Amino acid sequence: MKNRLSDSLTERILKLKKEKNAVILAHYYQVPEIQDIADFVGDSLALSQNALKTKADIIVFAGVHFMAETAKILNPSKKVLIPDLDAGCSLADSCPPDKFSLFKLKYPDHIVISYINCSAQIKTMSDVICTSSNAVKIVESFAKDQKIIFAPDKNLGGYINAITGRNMVLWEGSCEVHDIIKSEAVIKLKAEHPGAKLIAHPECKAVILELADYIGSTTGLLDYTMKSDSHEFIVATETGILHQMRKASPGKEFFIVPTDATCSCNDCPYMKMNTLEKLHACLYNEQPELVLPVDIIEKAKKPILRMLELSE
Ligand code: 13P
Ligand code: SF4
């Protein structure tokens, strides 16, 4: 019954999408039924590259608030819809603009590199943006002696410091979904599956990253599982990515590192606020719409475009 209902919902969404010349962009952490209906599923970098080049009149962003903001900043003349306006991000929230502007004052000779998981206002205070897939490249595009503030993720920043030998000043932010992953849970899974490769998102703590066979963005993790000869993977990130991993490699086994004794999952509560029903309603009503003041769009656009140029 549920399948029949979601089938007809899917048909209605596809019809509306065509009528309204809309495109659905979805992040890998969305529920499988949203990923399956999307025109494009990807990591933050690929999603922003797609948002920039789309010819659609409406962008439905099935992701979290900062991702929809980025799409709006890159494409201000388009209508950007998000299924649930409250789908925020604990990492973006860990860097309030008023506190960050005071922090910046302490380091007047530093440039600011901000991870894309931040608010549009933080982007206006940044020299360049990065994502988990291009962070090392962006940091290394600056001279070794360039003083840098990295915000807001202390785990990603610490990881880049470790592999590039830099000493960037780190804002003390983190993602509640990745920061909670414990080494005890990883070690237990490794003991149960001794042949499995451990793959981790760089938002995880250093103790997890030190144990990992591969560290990368969601796209990087997916590609690794497709190319690897291994048949088992312990996955230290959000559960949603397993959908594409299983589709791409049906013969392989994936074990998400659980954060809770009651389930084998690690869900982002914000990503999972979006549902197929809300996606249909937002396309039908053309609400909620993501709107931003023009001056914020203008200022935030520069560091994002700089990132996209440096990523080519
Ligand atoms: P990716 O850019 O690697 O997809 O990461 C987005 C994110 O929110 C991770 O928590
Ligand atoms: Fe934000 Fe973490 Fe959710 Fe990614 S997983 S959207 S960083 S709260």
Helix-strand layout with pairing:
Blueprint: H1 2-19, E1 22-27, H2 32-37, E2 40-42, H3 44-53, E3 58-62, H4 65-74, E4 79-81, H5 90-93, H6 97-105, E5 111-115, H7 120-124, E6 128-130, H8 135-140, E7 148-151, H9 154-164, E8 169-170, H10 176-179, H11 183-192, E9 197-200, H12 206-209, E10 214-215, H13 218-227, E11 232-236, H14 241-248, E12 253-256, H15 276-285, H16 294-310
Parallel strand pairs: 1-2, 1-3, 3-4, 5-6, 5-7, 7-8, 9-10, 9-11, 11-12
Helix pairs in contact: 1-15, 3-4, 4-16, 13-14
The chain binds 1,3-dihydroxyacetonephosphate and iron/sulfur cluster.
Any overview of this molecule?
The chain is of the alpha/beta class. The protein folds into three domains: 2-87 and 271-291, Rossmann fold, CATH 3.40.50; 91-175 and 299-310, NadA-like (Rossmann fold, 3-Layer(aba) Sandwich); 181-256, Rossmann fold, CATH 3.40.50.10800. It is 46% helix and 15% strand. The protein has helices spanning 2-19, 32-37, 44-53, 65-74, 90-93, 97-105, 120-124, 135-140, 154-164, 176-179, 183-192, 206-209, 218-227, 241-248, 276-285, 294-310; strands at residues 22-27, 40-42, 58-62, 79-81, 111-115, 128-130, 148-151, 169-170, 197-200, 214-215, 232-236, 253-256. The strands form three sheets. It has a four-stranded parallel β-sheet with strand order 2-1-3-4, sandwiched between helices. A four-stranded parallel β-sheet has the order 6-5-7-8. It has a four-stranded parallel β-sheet with strand order 10-9-11-12, with helices on both faces. Helix 12 links the parallel strand 9 and strand 10 (214-215). Helix 13 (218-227) runs parallel beside helix 14 (241-248). The protein is globular. It starts with a helix and ends with a helix. 46% of the residues are buried. The mean pLDDT is 96. Bound molecules: 1,3-dihydroxyacetonephosphate (13P) and iron/sulfur cluster. The site of iron/sulfur cluster has 13 residues, from helix 5 and helix 10.
